[in-house]
Amino acid sequence: MNLPPLITFPDRHLKGIDGVRSDGQPFRNDGRPFAGGMVSPPTAWIDHYDSDAHCVAYSCDGATVGSVHPRLRKCAAGSLHRAGATVHLRWGIIDADREQHEPWPNPHAQWPAVLSWIRSAPLCATAGVYMTRCGIRLIWPLDPPIPVDKCAGHLAGLYSRLRAMGIPADVACMDWTRLFRLPFVRRDGTDQRLPLDIPWI
Length: 201
Fold this sequence. Notes:
Blueprint: E1 6-9, E2 19-20, E3 26-27, E4 36-40, E5 54-56, E6 58-61, E7 68-70, H1 77-82, E8 86-97, H2 107-119, E9 128-132, E10 135-147, H3 151-164, E11 179-181, E12 186-187, E13 190-191, E14 196-197
Antiparallel strand pairs: 1-4, 1-5, 2-3, 4-7, 5-11, 6-8, 8-10, 9-10, 9-14, 12-13
C-alpha cells in the first residue's frame, strides 16, 4: 500500500492561512503568524509526542515553506489554486463518539470488544482504529486523493454508509480543514496511551 504523508501540528491552537500571495507566500488577513506543520511520514500515526499533537486529512502541493506546511482555512483554497497549488484530501478520518460523549470507564479492558465490533462492519475491515478519550477514530489512506473542492459528497457518502452500519460517525466533524488529535500525545499534562490497531503500518 502506497501511504500518503501526514501533516502534523504540535497542538490545535495554531492558526491557519487565508491564502497565498502572487509570489506563493502564505498570509493571514489579520497579519498574525500562521501555523507551521510538518510533512511527516505515515508512521506519524504511531509516534509518541511530548505535546498535544494534531493532524489534518489534507495536504497542499506547492504551498510549503521549506519543510513547513501551513494549516489552511477554507477561504485559502481559491488563491492556492490560482497560485498553482493543489489541495487534496489524502486521508479519511472519522470520529465516532460514545453516547453523551462519556469517557471510556476502562478502555484497555473494553478494547477487544470495541475492535471486534468495528471490524464486523465491512467498510471498517481494513481501517486504522484508535480509541479517543470519549470514542474512537477511524482512518483510511485515500488512493487516489480527492481534490478538496470535490470532497464534500465523498465525505457525506462515507458518513452515511458508516451510520447505516451502526457506527455513530459524528457529522459535526465532516470538514476537510478539521484538526484531529493523534493517538499518543501529551494531553492536559498526561501522556495519552489508548489502544489502537493500524494494520497497514
